[in-house]
């Protein structure tokens, strides 16, 4: 009976060594990690045949037992000594050992002790002819699974081995499951701790009982600073009411609060953030947020689990986008859309209260000259000064807006009468007339102001703005630097426009149009490698006007093609004259109007001008805007392809400001991309990142196109472009637009320097 009890005894299995609970990803099994992340699966392992080791010094016994177990698909090896058994255990993994105690060279317990000392994972059944109970007890104490006395019945021996192996498999599977669970917990902790989100749990009273380490970088608090503290210590005071609704959330599933925005306070003001909080209260079968009352069968709320994602940067970007939709980027004044909204509202109030209001349009005289001669950066600084000076004349109810490049609008809803409006306009002219120091230059500025009063000059926004514009043009035609209130005797806007159109026709007839050229420079050596032809209007009254004053009027009166022919002819003639003087062979860039490109004989006109002046086609570069490409892309592509085949080079001007599509870049036979000055202006430091500029350069390089940076006014802009792969530079930093004779002098000086080198 004692021996049977010993044989049936199954020792208690150890749970194994407790593992250190770390969140180190290096300790996570890659197979398990892949399974948990959806990249693999943990499948049950196929069970291989059990491997047995028979240790007995009787050859007959070894032979008979080998035959017995081989019939039942066991892999069995046999040895005849204890030393041989020890060697095999060190060399090979076995599932079970059948061990005789009385061996020729050592006692069987010595073999057991060796296996135990080495931590070898196998079960041992002692099969011995020793009838002493002490031998059985000693074997079990050394870790033997069971004890059978020789001669054992085959069925009894097979049953013992089968039961032992079943226990072995179960134990090993349990260990694998524990390992997987431990790995899973480490992975979960790692993901929680490394999450970019602030993850936390609250108890029933709203006190933190867990926060991940993200709270330290987001809000500046250590974990121990928050554990046990109420959530209100983090919530912005204005958001506490919403926080009570969200953070005391007890609902589960789809009814729980999601994507609710809260402002959380950091340890210092710099640590404050906006958060989008996803709160879920979980049931017991998930995270134990609810506990189950065994007697009453009721669930008890035990806490809240939440994830807070920092959306501060997104909120800033959205606020900036919303601001720029209604405000001017340069002056930060309301734009045209916001001004009209306020004007409509003010008119409603004016009619209701039967009170007057005034609208003024303020146009800066000769502002284009500032832009063209001193650069756009100085021009922007001047606009900001103008905005500040005008704002200093206003009260809190007035609205000052920037409508256009040099045009401002003023709404004064509480003006008492026309005399007060004129006094305000006079005061504005006075502050604008004071000298202004911008960009190291002293600038003297004047302005023209048109005034319209409601209800006398119009009772709706459109009519008031139109009449204020009529008064403005009346002032400008009368010599500028003055103000006037609208009067019915003034010519209306269409008459003013008609006069401008007539002036342009006269300018074409009298030869008032001229070409200026802005050099394009290789920043590697400072050499001029090309020029861009720019049309100017030598106006007898207003002085030099830019193309922006010419082509809009030309489009209205059908002069675009005539002016484009003249521009192309003059540019080719000047280039021929430079070549005839032996000056450097450079490229001539000419801007092409969409209307000119639409002409059926456009290709013939261009090639005729090139041939007429004996120029190499590749010396002419036609610049088109992105808008041309989408007017009629098939027609444009066909014409431009014919020119490219003849050798004429093609460029996209102001790239990135219009319909920037890779599709048309591949359809058109382009050679050059020009980076618009609006993007170049964003470069303030030659070591900063300007993703749009860098992306355009990389795109051009990838398409095998030359890239030109225009509007370059500062050294750091040139250095940035050169370092990023754009070495052709156009801008005031090197040269301003100048007449053909001045460009010829520059080229001659360049040739002389080259000879001296």
Task: Describe the structure in brief.
With 757 residues, this protein is α/β, with parallel strands linked by helices. The chain is built from 28 helices and 29 strands. Helix 16 links the parallel strand 18 (447-454) and strand 19.
Write out key terms for the chains shown.
757 residues; alpha/beta; Rossmann fold; Beta-Lactamase; Alpha-Beta Plaits; 4 domains; eight-stranded mixed beta barrel; five-stranded parallel beta sheet; 28 helices; 29 strands; elongated; Nucleotide_cyclase; Rev_trsase/Diguanyl_cyclase; GGDEF domain-containing response regulator; phosphoprotein
Strand segment count: 29
> Low-confidence spans: pLDDT under 50, at least 5 residues?
1-43, 276-290
Q: Give the biggest beta sheet.
A: 8 strands, mixed, barrel
The class by helix and strand makeup works out as alpha/beta
Number of structurally distinct domains: 4
Helix content: 40-55%
Whole-angstrom Rg: 44 Å
CATH fold name of the largest domain = TIM Barrel
- Strand order within the widest beta sheet: 20-21-23-24-25-26-27-28
Give the C-level CATH assignment of the largest domain.
Alpha Beta
Distance between the terminal alpha carbons, to the nearest Å?
115 Å
The CATH architecture category of the largest domain equals Alpha-Beta Barrel
Question: Which strand-content bin applies to the residues?
Answer: 15-25%
CATH superfamily of the largest domain: EAL domain
Question: Globular, elongated, flat, extended or rod-shaped: what is the shape?
Answer: elongated
Mean pLDDT: 81
Helical run tally = 28
């Amino acid at each position: 009976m004692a021996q049977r009890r010993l044989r049936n005894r199954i020792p208690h299995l150890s749970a194994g060594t407790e593992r250190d609970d770390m969140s180190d990803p290096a300790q996570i099994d890659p197979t398990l990690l892949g399974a948990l992340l959806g990249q693999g699966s943990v499948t049950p392992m196929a069970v291989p045949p059990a491997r047995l080791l028979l240790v007995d010094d009787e050859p007959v016994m070894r032979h008979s037992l080998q035959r017995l177990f081989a019939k039942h698909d066991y892999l069995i090896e046999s040895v005849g000594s204890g030393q041989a058994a020890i060697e095999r255990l060190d060399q090979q993994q076995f599932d079970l050992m059948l061990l005789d105690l009385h061996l020729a060279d050592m006692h069987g317990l010595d073999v057991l002790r060796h296996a135990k000392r080495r931590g070898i994972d196998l079960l041992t059944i002692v099969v011995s002819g020793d009838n002493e109970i002490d031998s059985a007890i000693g074997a079990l104490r050394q870790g033997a699974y069971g004890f059978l006395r020789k001669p054992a019945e085959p069925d009894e021996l097979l049953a013992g081995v089968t039961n032992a192996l079943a226990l072995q498999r179960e134990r090993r599977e349990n260990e694998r499951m524990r390992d997987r669970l431990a790995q899973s917990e480490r992975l979960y902790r790692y993901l929680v701790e490394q999450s970019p989100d602030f993850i936390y749990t609250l108890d029933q009273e709203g006190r933190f009982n867990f926060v991940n380490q993200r709270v330290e970088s987001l809000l500046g608090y250590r974990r121990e600073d928050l554990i046990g503290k109420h959530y209100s210590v983090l919530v912005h005071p204005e958001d506490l009411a919403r926080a009570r609704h969200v953070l005391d959330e007890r609902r589960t599933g789809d009814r729980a609060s999601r994507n609710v925005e809260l402002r959380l306070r950091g340890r210092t003001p710099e640590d404050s953030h906006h958060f989008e909080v996803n709160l879920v209260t979980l049931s017991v079968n998930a995270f134990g947020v609810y506990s189950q009352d065994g007697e009453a069968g009721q669930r008890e709320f035990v806490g809240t689990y939440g994830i807070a994602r920092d959306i501060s940067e997104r909120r800033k970007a959205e606020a900036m986008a919303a601001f720029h939709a209604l405000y001017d980027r340069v002056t930060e004044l309301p734009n045209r859309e916001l001004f009209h909204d306020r004007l409509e509202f003010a008119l409603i109030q004016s009619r209701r209260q039967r009170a007057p209001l005034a609208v003024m349009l303020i146009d800066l005289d000769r502002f284009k000259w500032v832009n063209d001669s001193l650069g756009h950066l100085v021009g922007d600084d001047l606009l900001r000064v103008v905005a500040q000076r005008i704002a200093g004349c206003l009260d809190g109810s007035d609205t000052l807006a920037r409508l256009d490049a040099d045009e401002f609008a003023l709404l004064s809803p509480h003006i008492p009468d026309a005399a007060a409006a004129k006094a305000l306009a006079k005061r504005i002219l006075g502050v604008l007339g004071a000298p202004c120091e911008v960009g190291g230059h002293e600038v003297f500025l004047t302005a023209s102001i048109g005034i319209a009063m409601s209800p006398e000059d119009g009772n709706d926004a459109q009519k008031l703005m139109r009449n204020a514009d009529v008064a403005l043009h009346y002032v400008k035609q009368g010599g500028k630097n003055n103000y006037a209130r609208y009067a019915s005797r003034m010519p209306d806007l269409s008459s003013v426009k008609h006069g401008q159109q007539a002036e342009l026709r006269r300018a074409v007839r009298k030869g008032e149009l001229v070409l200026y050229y802005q050099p394009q420079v290789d920043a590697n050596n400072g050499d001029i490698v090309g020029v861009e032809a720019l049309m100017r209007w030598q106006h007898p009254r207003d002085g030099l006007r830019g193309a922006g004053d010419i082509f809009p009027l030309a489009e209205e009166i059908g002069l675009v093609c005539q002016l484009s022919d003249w521009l192309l002819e003059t540019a080719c003639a000047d280039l021929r004259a430079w070549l005839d003087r032996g000056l450097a062979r450079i490229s001539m860039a000419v801007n092409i109007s969409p209307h000119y490109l639409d002409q059926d004989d456009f290709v013939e006109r261009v090639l005729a001008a090139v041939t007429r002046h004996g120029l190499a086609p590749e010396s002419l570069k036609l610049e088109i805007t992105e808008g041309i490409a989408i007017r009629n892309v098939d027609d444009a592509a066909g014409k431009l392809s014919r020119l490219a085949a003849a050798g004429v080079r093609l460029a996209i001007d102001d790239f990135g400001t219009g319909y920037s599509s890779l599709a048309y870049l591949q359809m058109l036979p382009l050679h050059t991309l020009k980076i618009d000055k609006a993007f170049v202006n964003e470069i303030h430091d030659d070591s900063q990142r300007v993703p749009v500029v860098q992306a355009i350069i990389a795109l051009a390089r990838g398409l095998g196109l030359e890239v030109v940076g225009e509007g370059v006014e500062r050294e750091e802009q040139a250095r940035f472009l050169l370092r990023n792969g754009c070495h052709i530079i156009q801008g005031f930093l090197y040269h301003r637009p100048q007449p053909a004779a001045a460009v010829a002098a520059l080229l001659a000086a360049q040739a002389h320097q080259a000879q001296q080198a």
